[in-house]
Structures are given as C-alpha cells and as structure tokens.
Amino acid sequence: MTGDYPDPVPDWIVNAPPPSRAREPDETGYVDAGSGVRVYYELFGDSPDVVCFVPPWAINNLRTWHALVPYLSRHFRVIVIDPRGNGRSDRPPDLADYSRDAHVGDVLAVLDAAGAERAMLVSASPRAPVALELAVRYPERVRAAAFITPQLWLESSFVTQFTAGRRNRYDGMEKMNPHYWKRDYRGFVEWFARWVSPHPHSTRQIEEIVHQAMQTDGETLIRATVGFQMYDRDEALRLARQVRCPVLVTQNGGGALYPKHTSGALAEATGGRLHVFEGLGPLVGSRWPVPMNLLLREFFEEVRATDRAEREVVA
Amino acid sequence: MTAVAVAPDRAREQSRARYPDDEGYVERDGVRTFYEVYGEGEPAILFLPTWSVVHSRFWKAQIAWFARRQRVIVFDGRGNGHSDRPRGTDAYRDGEFVADALAVLDATGTERAVVVGLSRGARWALRLAADHADRVEALVIAGPSIAMTRTLGPKSVAATFESTGRTRLVWGAAQSLLRLALTRPSALVSRTSRLSSRHTNPFEGARMFNRRRWQEDYRGFLEWFFGLVFVEPHSTKQIEDSVAWGLETTPDVLADTIAGDLFLDRDTALDLSARVSCPSLVITGGDDIVTPPEWASALARAIGARYVYFDGCGHSVAARHPVAFNLALREFVDSSVAG
Predict the structure, then answer these.
(1) Under an 8 A CB cutoff, do A201 and B193 touch?
(2) What are the boundaries of each domain within chain B?
(3) Which fold has domain B17-148+263-336?
(4) pTM to 2 decimals?
(5) Above 80 in pLDDT, residue B260?
(6) ipTM > 0.85?
(7) Which chain B residue is nearest to residue A205, measuring alpha carbons?
(8) How many angstroms separate the CA atoms of B105 and B75, rounded?
C-alpha cells in the first residue's frame, strides 16, 4: 500500500472552503504597488524580527506555507503574501503585471504596509529570483535570505516541454505545456500535485496543492509563468555574487525535481550555507515541516544573534 | 502446545521517538509475553494490547508523550510482536490476556496502574477493573468490542468464520446486510466518498471474517480491515503500519484469537460494569464502524464513566488523532487520579 491518491481529488474537497488553521493571522490587508493590482498579505506575531515569505508561484497561494507559519510566528513576526493570480490577490489580464519587478514591488509594498524596515526572506522554487533581486537591489531591506530548492534560470527540460506545440495527448512531463493548461487545467493540476508528491502518505499534500491550484485557472497560470522573467544562468550567478546578507540554500535529498546544481551554485556564489535534506524531498516544507521549521528557525536565530552582537559592538 | 520464541530485533523495525528504559518477558504456562517500560512517575499507565492482529507498537503515538511525565507499560499480546504464538483457541480467552496483564504488572513492580484498553483490549481492561480493583487506579476504554446493542451472536459469527464454498458466500451476503442494518448505516454511507474507502468495501464484512479467506489472502484481509479501522482520509501511514504488524503473525494464529467470540456480550459486560468502582473514561469515534459509538455510550452509562465522543473519528482515535486522544486521556488522569 502506498500513499497514492485515488484519481482525481473529489470535487467536494476542491470546492470546500480553505481548511481551518492552527493559527489565524493577527492582521490582514491589501497593498497596491502602483499599478492598480491588489495584493493580499497576512501578518502573524509581534516580534521585531520579521520573516517574510515572498509570494509563491501562482499555482499555489499563501496557504502553501501553512505548516511553517504557526511555528515560526512563535519566534518571529511572519509575513505571507498571496501571489498575483491566486488566493485573494488580483488576477490581472496583462502579462506585464506578472513580471519579476512587479513581484519585487509587491514585497516592498507589503513590508512598508507592515512597518517592517528590514526582513529575513524565504522564497521557494521558481520565485527565488524575487528574493535574489531584493537582496541585491534593496540590501538595506533584506537581513537574510533563505532559498528553498531555488530555481533561477529555465531548465532546458522545462523549456522543451513548455514550448512544444499542440499535441493530441499529453503524457507525464508533456503536461508542462500551456496548450494543455488551456485545454485541461484540472488535468494538469492533478498530474502536477502527484508529480511533486511522489512519497507515500502525501495524500493530504496532494489535496492541498489541487485545492490551491484550483483557486485560479490555466490562462492566469500561463500569464504568471510567462510574464515572470527568469534569469539566464550567467546573469543569476552574477547577481548572486553581489549578495551581502546571510544566505541559506536548501536542496532536496530525495528524488529531486529541481536541479541540484542550482542550489549548490547559488550557495557558492552568495557564500551562503547549503543544506541538503538527506533522504527528504521534494516539498520538504509541507511533507516534512519539522526539519524545515527547525532549519529555518536556526538560521534566522543566527541572523538575529549576529545583528545583536554587531549592534552591541557599535554601541 | 507449541511456543515459538522470538527475540527482539530492533534493527528491522522503524526508528522510535523513544526507546524503552526496561524490557523483559513474563512466562505463564510456557507462554512468554514481552513487555516494555518507559519513563518514571506515578500513576503508571498500562496500555493493553488491542488485538493480536497488531502489537504494542500500535501505541507508539502515546508512549513517548506520556513517558515524559509518568511510567508507561506496554506489552505485546500473545500471538504477535515479540511474544509467543501459542496455538488453540483456549490460549486466547479473555482470562489469558488478563492474567498476562497482571503478570506484567507484577514483573514491573507496578502495584496499581491506569489501565487503557482499546477494541478487544477494552474487554480485558473491564475485567481487570471489575475483578482486580486493587490493581487498577483508573479505567480507560476506547472503541470497546463489547456488543452493547444487538448484533450478530457468537454462533452465527462462528458459522460464518468457518463456512466454506457456496455456504460461505451465502452466509457472507446475508450477514453483511444484517450487520449493516444493525449497526450504523449512516456511517457506512457517509464514508463512501472518503479516501480510504477506495481500498475498503464495508459491505464485505462477513465475507472477510472467514478462516478460508484469511488463509487464501491474509494481506488482503488486513488491508480491508485496517481500511475499516482507519476510515479517516489521509490514514495511509496508519494503515501501512498496521498491515505490516499484522503480517508479523499468521492467519492461523489470528484465527485462534477470534474463534472464541468476536465481541463480548452485553450481559457479561453489564455484570462487569456494575463492579467497576474506579474513575472511568470511555472514548469513542463518531465514525467508528468497527465498534459503533452506541456500544461505547451504552457501556459508559453502565459503568457510570465519563464519556468522550470524537466527531469524525474512526475506530482508533489513539493512533489516528493522537494529540486529541492524549490530551483527553491526560486531562482525565490529572482530574480523577490524585497524584
């Protein structure tokens, strides 16, 4: 017996309201970074030390962090943000509204709204460029950056599938294709949720991914994917070498969906710390939240202790 | 009687949140029973075996947490785990398990303990509290396999269990319908949309409780049965664990454990309940379709026990919802047993 989820996830689960939470936000709100697009955020806790999760890829929304927020917010003030295209944020029709810069602007606007001068950032997978860009262009706002299985440039395996033409049928990785997303978004989502959750006993995680993904649609996800410019490899590493804040990079120890060399290269270029979750992954943060929580807390506690020590030296 | 000794081999099992501070065997009439002791502090808690289809690892979500504050004792019921697997139905009567429990209390120097019994273990817990009140600080019963409302009598259960060929199918179909009508049709209907029901057809009840069936496809029976125990969605881990524990014994040994009787009868239960004088708690899951909540509530009334009902939970609140179960159990112990 394995954790395989009977196919597909029932509609009554997909259409249900979001599940109850271990901790409710202390404050919620919207920001508009200037382009008329409203972006939703939530605040937890009241520590002066702020941890901000940058918006995830629009197939998810801020609930994707639900196993991390209640724990971390006992020790830090935690900010989570719905991405443009999912959750309670707007789904603008223009490609330009999903750019990397727009996401960077959203994070800055949320930090302003929260009165957070500086924050420790967490990003995941294809939204790593948002955190990298912030760390390089706004070093005064970024105390530290934790990159969870970062993707910074497009992998050829993805590009091949994404730019392939229309097919009559799409199998496996072929579903990573906008024609298929337009034709059968639900089919893509059901496949994607299982593809990123190959470990037994992931039925709950599969339901959550499908639930979040079905808060948006194929057209919107295409815009959020195409409109967000990834770097090319050289540009990403050039920027990474300019990062001055403490950096943590995680890498899956299990069957890696995302290329391991991105994690290692980013850690090396930033001078950051590389942590490999031996035997775990993908989706360590939702499938094995305890080790992810312990790692993130330890990293941010170090940053806090270092800042405090520096302040004392200056004083 | 043949006794098979099995030495503990921790290299082959999953890692544990906590390892025992003491372990050993008690022996009665040549049958060895393996026990473990964790932590220290009073009152001690004895988690009884549930049924020899599993062993003491079934309590893994309770042991480490309770052992932070008090002594926890578990033992592998005869027929599984590191305990012997004697043959013959007489080796698995209630009295044998009760005597094993007393022997474990003696061997661990435990004068009195909070006794927790789940499923078949509820019968042994009830007998301990009624007949050995001096050893029981408090009684906790969860999902009792005690037929407090009408259900199949032991004779028809035995006939089904031993039936073969065409008789077996006729018996199976008739009894499935009967049991369905007698217990909880609403629970059966509500769970058809649930995840684990994909692996489990509750209408197969009587067909699955059959010796021949077990001999033909023991794993199939285990997967069906634990799908019924864990009706909640996202129970794949609990089902996988339990099936693996079930495979540590054999269908023939397991058949010996139920050939006597599947459920304790109401009259015996009422008689035992009347003699319980310690603080008592009865826990049930609202979606329990192995031992319906009606049995638990009726038993709680008979004992005069506190009654806790977990909505949306199946037969094993302890394994599937350990936080809720542990908090309820600790609150009961704290409030009813003077430290």
Answers:
(1) no
(2) 17-148+263-336, 154-258
(3) Rossmann fold (3.40.50)
(4) 0.87
(5) no
(6) no
(7) B234
(8) 10
